[in-house]
Amino acid sequence: MYGNDFSAEDAPGGGLLGEVEAAEVALREAAERGRRVGAPGPDQDLAAYFAEVIEADQKIEPRDWMPEAYRKTLIRQIAQHAHSEIIGMQPEGNWISRAPSLKRKAILLAKVQDEAGHGLYLYAAAETLGISRDELVELLLNGRQKYSSIFNYPTLTWADVGAIGWLVDGAAIVNQVPLCRCSYGPYARAMIRVCKEESFHQRQGFEILHTLTHGTGAQKAMAQDALDRWWYPSLAMFGPPDTDSTHSAQSMAWKIKRFSNDELRQRFVDMCVQQAEILGLTIPDPGLRWNESRQSYDFTQPDYDELMRVIKGDGPCNRQRAEHRRRAHDEGTWVREAAVAYAAKRAEKKEKVAA
Ligand SMILES: [Fe+2]
Ligand SMILES: [Fe+2]
């Protein structure tokens, strides 16, 4: 039994993987067609040209002129996304040695490695905007750039690994599928690949929970407890409500963002309800009920004050996550030095051959 939101066309959420594929086809077609909006003429106003490309739903590429604020917004967003992939390895990495079977270990190890890969694509996408990976890592280590607040919660039981896959990776996909059509080419392309991999993550989490809920009473209780703890922090992953969201309007105009925080949160809730039923778990929200006129579920909002506290550094694991990352970075110094030395040696060899 697997999660049902990504392949089935009639699934709640409308087949998110189908949307990823459609975005990929659109991207390929646009590349084959070439730009309908030609290169800017010598007298053309660059800002007007930029607006035309966005208006025509074409991609802005690294060498194109772009407003400084667009560049900065993208750097901030892509960096925060990359940092989240890397920090997000910690809560699950914590369970690799304790996964209940060799098969579970292998699957979890592959999943955590995928997250490292996502971080890599995203740092590479950010670098095309003129900032180096070293600078980005430094901004994470000194706390000037953020990562998703969800990773500041602890993973107390094996069921938490299931809940993270099902809910946290699930929320990430709902957030990221529209980014496959983001106006900035390198980010859109990275997102297509990331989303395809995330769909496996979501399914493995769902499958862990399904196994537990069909096991002993204690296993089922463990799964319910994980859902109880992860539900509201997962809803908070979509950010503050639209009324308080500072960056949304401009990002929508630039076609970086396509849907508001509240629209995506609603989509996620609607998707999860049926899946929770299949799992036999109860979403911990007494206010959750179908609203016939909206054709969506009414639900209780997460505690946004708590979200702000965790973002500001006061979550259960903020300090632990940052310290772990700093230590891993320091311990990796020799690897980076060795890689630089190896590259220099190879370049020297090549030069000798060419001479
Ligand atoms: Fe990821
Ligand atoms: Fe993931």
Unreliable residue runs: 1-14
How many strand elements? Answer: 2
Please give the alpha-carbon distance between the first and last residues.
62 Å
Give the bound compounds. Answer: fe (ii) ion
Give the SSE order as H and E letters: HHHHHHHHHHHEEHHH
User: What count of structural domains?
Assistant: 2
Overall 3D shape: globular
What does it look like?
The chain is mainly α. It has two domains: 17-35 and 44-237 and 246-267, Ferritin, core subunit, four-helix bundle (Ferritin); 316-354. Helix content is 64%, strand content 2%. The protein has 14 helices and two strands, in the order αααααααααααββααα. The chain has helices spanning 16-33, 46-55, 68-87, 89-93, 102-127, 133-141, 158-176, 185-213, 217-236, 248-253, 261-279, 304-314, 318-331, 333-354; strands at 289-291, 296-298. A two-stranded antiparallel ribbon has the order 1-2. Strand 1 and strand 2 (296-298) form a beta hairpin. Helix 1 runs antiparallel to helix 8 and helix 7 (158-176) runs antiparallel to helix 8. It is globular and about 70 Å long. One fe (ii) ion binds at residues 85, 115, 118, 194, 198. Residues 85, 115, 118, 194, 198 line the site of one fe (ii) ion.
